[in-house]
Write a structure and sequence with these properties.
This protein is of the alpha/beta class. It has a single domain, classed as 3-Layer(aba) Sandwich (Rossmann fold), CATH 3.40.50.1820. The protein contains eleven helices and eight strands. An eight-stranded mixed sheet has the order 1-2-4-3-5-6-7-8, with helices on both faces. Helix 4 packs across helix 11. The radius of gyration is 19 Å and the shape is globular.
């Protein structure tokens, strides 16, 4: 019977390990944060052979957009089905996918101007070390990537630009691109009822404006990260993504820039995710 089952699985084109074991997603894993003074949740995707193998895996940090939480990519993005299919078809390598919650307390992936809410510090100093010690993750730049949509696309930009030594690939989808001018920064802080001095506003703008960060990339860091930038032609964030593309072209930063038919919707992002998984896998593999 076991032999018949194996032959049947090969006949329909599915690896036996996928059918026998199956991938797993845990939506409400938590890590204690001293920086944010709270327990922080994250969701995690473990590939089909995780529990039956002894190997370690590359990792993709997948960031949600505004209004969602760590369950967004699971519930609406169908990450488990899409990742399973991409891996089964050989279009992506088996990987662990970590989806943190950036919607609790304050919304977003950044530190605030006064350092009173330090989500970015939490991500790099607490979340990343925790998951990479808890799970069998290859904790090297080559085997680590980041992606996200909308607000998470902005987080993808800032995290990879702030820490190019940590990520092999970065894939912002329909990304917010931060304030274009200092006036935009002031309006944004006012919208979120965040007060700051003029100097704090200037420093925060320099740290979180994607165009400012690109303008100031050192020459020896231009090829530090593989970039895949994707946005729909009907997306309200199309202009900002196009300006980032132009800035990268002028700065001679290698990147892929893709415009497809669609808007700021889960339908679009579910279609984009397989390409992200394939793109990051290219770095995870041996060239």
């Amino acid at each position: 019977m076991k032999k018949l089952f194996t032959l049947l699985m090969f006949a329909i084109g599915l690896p036996v390990s996928v059918m026998a074991q199956g991938s797993k997603v845990f939506e409400n894993v938590s890590v204690k944060s001293k920086i944010l003074n709270a327990d922080r949740k994250f969701a995690i995707y473990l590939p089909a052979d995780y529990e039956t193998s002894q190997r370690s895996y590359p990792v993709l940090y997948l960031l949600h957009g505004a209004g969602d939480d760590q369950t967004g990519w699971v519930q609406f993005g169908e990450v488990q089905h899409i990742a399973d299919q991409a891996i089964a078809e050989g279009k992506a390598t088996p990987m662990i996918i970590v989806m943190p919650d950036a919607n609790t307390g304050r919304r977003g992936y950044a530190n605030d101007p006064k350092g009173e809410w330090r989500y970015e510090d939490f991500f790099f100093q607490e979340l990343m070390p925790f998951v990479e010690k808890t799970y069998r993750i290859k904790a090297e730049k080559r085997f680590r990537a980041v992606s996200g949509l909308s607000m998470g696309g902005e987080g993808t930009f800032t995290y990879a630009l702030h820490h190019p030594e940590l990520f092999s690939s970065a894939c912002p989808l329909s990304a917010a691109t931060g304030p274009m001018t200092l006036e935009d920064e002031e309006a944004r802080l006012k919208r979120f009822n965040i007060t700051a001095t003029d100097e704090e506003k200037k420093a925060h703008f320099a740290k979180y404006s994607i165009l400012e960060l690109i303008k100031n990339i050192p020459d020896d860091q231009k090829k530090a990260v593989r970039w895949y930038i994707d946005c729909g032609d009907d997306d309200f964030l199309y202009e900002g993504n196009s300006l980032v593309h132009i800035a990268m072209r002028k700065k001679e930063i290698p990147h892929e820039f893709r415009i497809h038919d669609g808007g700021h919707t889960w339908t679009y992002w579910r279609t984009a995710l397989p390409k992200v998984l394939s793109f990051v896998s290219e770095a995870f593999h041996q060239y």
